[in-house]
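Thread: Newbie trying to understand structure tokens

Hi all, I'm a second-year student working on a class project, and my supervisor (Dr. K.) asked me to get a predicted structure for one chain before our next meeting. I've only ever worked with sequences, so writing a 3D structure as a token string is new to me. If someone could post the tokens and maybe explain what I'm looking at, I'd be very grateful. Here's the chain:
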Amino acid sequence: LAEPGDPLCIFHSFCLSYSTGEARAALDRLLASASAGGRTIYRVGSEPSARFSAWNKGHDRSQGEKPPPSGEITITRYAGGEVSSRIVATNGVDMPIEWTGWDEGAG
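---
Reply by user tm_fold:
Sure, no problem. This is what the structure looks like when written as tokens:
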């Protein structure tokens, strides 16, 4: 994290869903700490949504019920040791990306 220029952008897709909540929190702490010296870091992620994960647990897909959008595209900004995050779009299998916008009042 010390070498790349400012700002730094990190992209991930369907990888944090395999991590524990503590591991995800540790990543946030690491990136927030790295931003404390004045650097800005953006993390753009496409990960399964909590709503989809709850729907998917033990769900019998043979009934043909269409799942909710499975993914959320989130932009997280780390600056001055602070973290702010926004869900900007949803996506899913056989579903286009649906832009939900940048809501200044969220997150």
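A couple of things are worth pointing out once you decode it. The longest strand covers residues 82-92. DSSP finds two helices and five strands in the chain. Feel free to ask follow-ups in this thread.
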